[in-house]
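Appendix B. Chain record.
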Amino acid sequence: MIKYLLYIDPGTGSLLYQAILSAVLTLSVFGSRIKVFLVQFIRSVKAKKGSGK
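Structure tokens predicted for this chain:
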């Protein structure tokens, strides 16, 4: 079974390479926006949770 897992055909390898590259580039371009959005979202959830008590 290990023999089958070690082989990645060129099409699949290319697809994986493109997916990883696009994820890295997306995070490098939009990373700060994503971080700000997540921080604001977490703060709003904490604020709603705190006001509900």
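Further analysis of this model is presented in Appendix C.
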